[in-house]
Specification:
CheW-lke_dom, single chain, CheW-like_dom_sf, five-stranded mixed sheet, disordered N terminus, mainly beta, CheW
């Protein structure tokens, strides 16, 4: 959205790329999303944490794959060939977030984003940037800095 349009509406708009895990709606800011890919062959990494599924080759660039189901405490699924990859460009370079399904890109007014509650189905407050009540579901906006902190 252009700065001009934001000034006209008087409210800031946050654009979020959304996806699903266990039927729950999650989102990340689109400014971090580079692309969406269907399942890619993953090369496992020995001794990596459970949520690091492995590595993929993205046009010659090696990208770490984070299984968001596992990272957020949902049940781990071994056969992830129906999963989608959300490729994000963040401080440490490109990372792939393995998700169940892709949603839409949503324009959310900044004042609709609320502080996260203490926990949501086992997800810690540190992994959530905000929540937003949509018409029929709750949108959980993830904090990529917390999610992608691999130490």
């Amino acid at each position: 959205m252009s700065d001009e349009r934001q000034q006209q509406t008087g409210a800031g708009i946050v654009q979020l790329a959304t996806f699903f895990l266990e039927g729950e709606l999650f989102g990340v800011k689109t400014l971090h999303v580079q692309e969406i890919l269907t399942y890619q062959e993953i090369t496992p990494v020995p001794l990596a944490p459970d949520y690091v599924r492995g590595l993929i080759n993205l046009r010659g660039q090696i990208v770490t794959v984070i299984d968001l189901r596992c990272r957020l405490g949902f049940e781990k699924i071994d056969d992830r060939q129906t999963s989608m990859n959300v490729i994000v460009n963040f401080e440490e370079g490109l990372m792939s977030l393995l998700v169940d399904n892709i949603g839409n890109v949503l324009d959310i007014p900044e004042d609709s984003l609320l502080p996260p509650p203490g926990t949501i189905r086992g997800i810690t407050v540190h992994d959530i940037q905000a929540v937003c009540q949509l018409d029929d579901e709750l949108l959980i906006v993830l904090d990529l800095q917390s999610i992608l902190h691999l130490n």
